[in-house]
Amino acid sequence: MARVKSFTFLLLVQALLISPLLCVLEAHASAPLSKGLSRKFYQSTCPKVESIIRKHLKKVFKRDIDQAAGLLRLHFHDCFVQGCDASVLLDGSASGPSEQQAPPNLSLRKRAFEIVNDLRELVHSECGRVVSCSDIVAIAARDSVYLSGGPEYGVPLGRRDGLNFATQNATLANLPPPSSNTTVLLNALAQKNLDATDVVALSGGHTIGISHCTSFTDRLYPTQDPTLDQTLADDLKTICPTTNSTNTTVLDIRTPNIFDNKYYVNLMNRQGLFVSDQDLYMDARTKDIVTNFAVNESLFFEKFVVAMTKMGQLSVLTGTQGEIRANCSVRNSDNIYLVSVVDEDLETKSELR
Ligand code: HEM
């Protein structure tokens, strides 16, 4: 009898612990995917793509965990401007300066671009030119989150790379500045079908990484932002003695390199670095979401995955649209190496005829 009772108790514990988990997993699995994307897209053409990327990034982050933040931000900047098409990776051309040269992208880490090209080389040498740069960026962003302590999740794959980069104006118009208040953020992200929960969850990306002084010194000088904690303001004034200081500081003062929910605890203590962060706690429409994420990390993780999955599918190119770049920084038609390989191929074929 005692055995039956303890067995029933075990079942109850299991049901309580496991069923909410299953609901979360089901919710992710059933989130609608854009046409042409699938979590198993490379199952037959490049089954090892995700393990190759994970293995390499583990090595990179072991040496320098800061790179995780650079890769996560790169995916955000790719998706918000012209969709997740790796256009942010393209070098400038005769047609004009690249997206990379637009002001919000100047602080993207150069190393992040190099890591993506290294990953592309590893993946293409295993499978050939079948995996897009935009998918590599999306997988690398997921791995950056996971390997810094955040949630694991499946990334819908099958994106293709864009043929053109966006103009400087389009880049500026699509990436809200850090001085944005919640109204500006909600309106900007609503245009991309992202709701208030998505906005608060995605801003949680600021749980890792750094910022340059110039992104927030308007909160210190000439007058101090009253929503900024005094001790943090004093520290920031030491780090950034002038408005144009080139110094940097961490985004999350509690756990700067760990992907956790401490960013929201910071906001509740007036320790958000940007207006766009701190105002999420000051605005009645988003305050409760911040509080809920600060007290419940699993809830933050769950909503972050939902929002990242939505962001990762913004205006994606699929099927026969775009191309699979042979070099993430150059479109194939401008790729001298690729053009000469194709020419050689054609020459060899005509010689054989
Ligand atoms: C919602 C509006 C957002 C604004 C206004 C914003 C603004 C900024 C700014 C100004 C920086 C610092 C740049 C610098 O001075 O070096 C930054 C860094 C960063 N952002 Fe955002 N961001 C936003 C959304 C996001 C999203 C959606 C993510 C990812 C999910 C994200 C991830 C990051 C990361 C990881 C860093 C640190 C990068 C590094 O250390 O290299 N941000 N953001």
TrEMBL record:
Gene3D superfamilies associated with the record: 1.10.520.10, Peroxidase, domain 2
CDD domains on file: secretory_peroxidase
GO biological process: hydrogen peroxide catabolic process; response to oxidative stress
Amino acids binding Ca(2+) 2: T207, D252, T255, D260
Residues binding substrate, per UniProt: P176
Residues bound to heme b: H206
Binding site for Ca(2+) 1: D78, V81, G83, D85, S87, E99
Cellular component aspect of the GO annotation: extracellular region
Localisation per UniProt entry: Secreted
Classification via PROSITE patterns: PEROXIDASE_1, PEROXIDASE_2, PEROXIDASE_4
Primary subcellular site in the record, as a coarse category: secreted
Occurrences of domain Plant heme peroxidase family profile (ranges): 36-332
UniProt xrefs under InterPro entries: Haem_peroxidase (IPR002016), Haem_peroxidase_sf (IPR010255), Peroxidase_pln (IPR000823), Peroxidases_AS (IPR019794), Peroxidases_heam-ligand_BS (IPR019793), Secretory_peroxidase (IPR033905)
Cofactor: heme b; Ca(2+)
Keywords recorded for this protein, A-Z: Calcium, Disulfide bond, Glycoprotein, Heme, Hydrogen peroxide, Iron, Metal-binding, Oxidoreductase, Peroxidase, Secreted, Signal
GO molecular function: heme binding; lactoperoxidase activity; metal ion binding
Catalytic function, reaction form: 2 a phenolic donor + H2O2 = 2 a phenolic radical donor + 2 H2O
Keyword set includes Glycoprotein: yes
Disulphide-bridged cysteine pairs: C46-C127, C79-C84, C133-C328, C213-C240
Annotated family: Belongs to the peroxidase family. Ascorbate peroxidase subfamily. Belongs to the peroxidase family. Classical plant (class III) peroxidase subfamily.
Role summary: Removal of H(2)O(2), oxidation of toxic reductants, biosynthesis and degradation of lignin, suberization, auxin catabolism, response to environmental stresses such as wounding, pathogen attack and oxidative stress. These functions might be dependent on each isozyme/isoform in each plant tissue.
Protein name: Peroxidase
Protein species of origin: Erythroxylum novogranatense
